[in-house]
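Q: Give me the 3D complex with coenzyme A.
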Amino acid sequence: MALPHDVSLPDALHGPRVRLRPLGQDDAAALWEAINESRDHLAPWLPWVRHVQALADAQAHIARARTRWRRGTDLAMGIFARDEGHLLGGCTLYPHTWALRVFEIGYWLRRTARGHGYAAETVQVLTRFAFEELKANRVEIRVDPRNAKSRAVAERIGFVYEGTLRRCAPGADGKPADRMVYALIADDDQRPDWANDGENKIGTATKPSARSGDLPSPL
Ligand SMILES: CC(C)(COP(=O)(O)OP(=O)(O)OC[C@H]1O[C@@H](n2cnc3c(N)ncnc32)[C@H](O)[C@@H]1OP(=O)(O)O)[C@@H](O)C(=O)NCCC(=O)NCCS
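A: Here is the predicted complex, encoded as structure tokens.
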């Protein structure tokens, strides 16, 4: 299902230290550099990284992401340092179904951005946006059980572990792999309160573009 007519996507989302926004072609060199310096820790968990072998692949990756953003089939964004503006990594808010408003969050950080809490902050920003602006019923994180760093992100910020789906998704080696499912639901008693006051509140959105699904910068 495509982007519902009543949904306006923001130009950007903010946390205290991160800014999330769709990548444009001006970001292709930074994306290429970030992936290249990070292959060792990305490739075991993100099979698409193997297909980015040149700047042109990063450009094509961004073009595909922008098409999916416009259609509302996947809301992928770059993670940027809010102050310095450099690229820290990437994230997605993937709508399993707009009809039921069920979303899945994905994330990665470049090598030099790990170990500062940027991934946890990014997930908090996306989760808040999903519940408050997109009226999500459920937000999931699915993790390969071998991915201890990613499991730690979900657990640290209070997502509830619901169970493990066995051999339900491809591992980076192409073989079927398990997924641990973490989730929050809209009326979850355990849903954490991540609110902060003022302009640094987690999940602050920049005003949406004129039409739903418009992108803030030219293709
Ligand atoms: C998963 C991934 C994003 C996690 O990165 P990360 O840096 O460990 O996660 P965070 O950004 O939340 O940082 C948490 C770490 O920063 C530390 N930290 C330092 N300053 C911090 C701060 N101000 N706030 C919060 N944490 C802070 C935490 O203590 C924690 O350290 P630890 O791992 O030694 O316990 C990263 O390993 C990655 O890119 N992996 C490959 C892609 C991937 O697996 N994606 C997920 C697929 S499901």
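A quick observation: The domain at 19-196 is CATH 3.40.630.30 (Aminopeptidase).
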